[in-house]
């Protein structure tokens, strides 16, 4: 992946930086991001739109990995930003991200979050349901502010992926149903509003998608309804936000297309649909990739500790992190690939399982992997952990969250400090008296 190399002495380098040195300097577990690869992905997406001469926004879905540094990088690369909570919004603004390039998602935005976003003059709200529309309109009326919105609709497409990650199908907590008239009702209401400007339509059909068919089907469905709305209420969207969900290769089992292929298929389908709308201008196409921008740019370094061999059954090797820094194997049965980062030139001939150190049998990072026989203190590099790793990390077992470093051109920069034990009890409020229950 990206700038990774194996040196003659068997050491893995990322961005020209030796991973053993990184482990020494910053400790483990450690998330390492190859920022050149993130830039390459960001430019890759944008270049397709430029080449096709289609107005666009590529919004980084910051839920995949959120901290100030990645938002600065996104800003530098000309990306917009998708946030889904007051916390993500706060982080973006704190990083200096231009508010007009921020899109606010979420199926239950609180009044406080809406007011915060309006005050910050964000680019647009992605309105998820009718209750939110009413609340947003009321707050705008009360505070005499106007805002742009996209209406998030559920086109009823089931993209082929893991059940928990499905979001585009009909029975979903997200979005306005297009099939049963919910979306049309919301659209009429929003169009009648003096304070809301309906920029367009949004849909997101799922995550870790390997085919273009889900996207093109969603576009076809959307255009059926856009046709109806055009005819009945004379509304035609200026923006079509087609969400994220582009798959990446975690292991050799995964067969994603290139990011460019997904985008090109989307553009082609929209262009084809536009043939039925002479006189209407082709909408801007917005996308919001998360995983495909940062996923394979991230590698987690762990130190190997104890081992347990059950002859004829399984050999467990335990690392100094686990489900607290990567919940995906336990939550989605997600698979990962790994190597010994300090012995990458040795033959990977032994079958084993990588366990975390949390107090739970399900805390496994990799069930079956071939590695050189590891020794205590060896460094394990687990690949493709850049998306939904740090952002879904927890303090289960009061594990401290790892540090994050960015590497590029032979230089490393710490962008999130490792949590300390003191950090863990920062918000704890001790009982006034120890005898309270006596
Ligand atoms: N836009 C919307 C509205 C979304 O709901 C999501 C992801 C994205 C964009 C970005 O999707 P991506 O390009 O990253 O696939 N925690 C799960 C993934 C949950 C995705 C939720 N929504 C995982 O670890 O696989």
Automatic annotation (TrEMBL):
Stated family: Belongs to the Orn/Lys/Arg decarboxylase class-II family. LysA subfamily.
Pathway: Amino-acid biosynthesis; L-lysine biosynthesis via DAP pathway; L-lysine from DL-2,6-diaminopimelate: step 1/1
Catalytically driven reaction(s): meso-2,6-diaminopimelate + H(+) = L-lysine + CO2
Name of the protein: Diaminopimelate decarboxylase
UniProt cross-references to PANTHER family, sorted A to Z: DIAMINOPIMELATE DECARBOXYLASE, GROUP IV DECARBOXYLASE
Function: Specifically catalyzes the decarboxylation of meso-diaminopimelate (meso-DAP) to L-lysine.
Residues the record lists as binding pyridoxal 5'-phosphate: 245, 288-291, 388
Binding-site list for substrate: 291, 328, 332, 360, 388
Domain Orn/DAP/Arg decarboxylase 2 C-terminal: 31-386
Location of N6-(pyridoxal phosphate)lysine modifications: 63
UniProt GO molecular function: diaminopimelate decarboxylase activity
Native source organism of the sequence: Fictibacillus iocasae
Domain Orn/DAP/Arg decarboxylase 2 N-terminal, residue spans: 37-294
SUPFAM superfamilies according to UniProt: Alanine racemase C-terminal domain-like, PLP-binding barrel
HAMAP family: LysA
EC number: 4.1.1.20
Subunit structure: Homodimer.
Named cofactor requirement(s): pyridoxal 5'-phosphate
Keywords for the protein's UniProt record, in alphabetical order: Amino-acid biosynthesis, Decarboxylase, Lyase, Lysine biosynthesis, Pyridoxal phosphate
Phylogenetic lineage: Bacteria, Bacillati, Bacillota, Bacilli, Bacillales
